[in-house]
Amino acid sequence: MTDKLVHRRKSAYTIQSGRCYYCGLPMWENDQKSFARIYGITTVQAQLLKSTAEHLEAKQDGGSNASDNIVAACRWCNSRRHRRKRAPDPLSYRNLVRKRLADGRWHSPSVIEIYRRFVFAGQIPPERSTACAPSGT
């Protein structure tokens, strides 16, 4: 990943308050173990919530690395969108993901519990701001 793309992903992560563009779940950038401990999940499950750079319009479809084409998405959502024969447009995919998540059919049960506790109820642990916040680099 180029330095510019890393910077744009980190900027998107910050603008989105560390939440996935598609599912809205908290993501991590620097400390997988602390993130897993805070949210009560395994490090394997936490790996799926790592922040990635998502091109709203894929590069193969003419999209660029411009900041208005880059959002932060968890690894799970990003990879699932591009496994389809034709990736759905970002808004349709976001709606699909959120519907499936609300129905308990998107992430694993323990990750869905994060959704229920912290996203749906709006309760983010206070430790999150320091343990999982983006670094200045």
Provide a concise account of the structure shown.
This protein is mainly α. The protein has a single domain (3-122), classed as Herpes Virus-1, CATH 3.30.40.
Would you write up a description of this structure?
The structure is a single chain. The protein is mainly α. The chain has a single domain (3-122), classed as 2-Layer Sandwich (Herpes Virus-1), CATH 3.30.40. The chain is built from 7 helices and 2 strands. A two-stranded antiparallel ribbon has the order 1-2. The protein starts with a helix and ends in a 6-residue tail after the last helix.
Q: What is the number of domains?
A: 1
Sheet with most strands: strand arrangement? 1-2
> In terms of per-residue confidence, which ranges show pLDDT below 50 for 5 or more consecutive residues?
126-137
Number of helices, counting only DSSP H or I runs of 4 residues or more: 7
Please give the share of residues in helix: 40-55%
Number of strands: 2
Features:
globular; 137 residues; mainly alpha; Herpes Virus-1; 7% strand; disordered C terminus; single chain; 7 helices
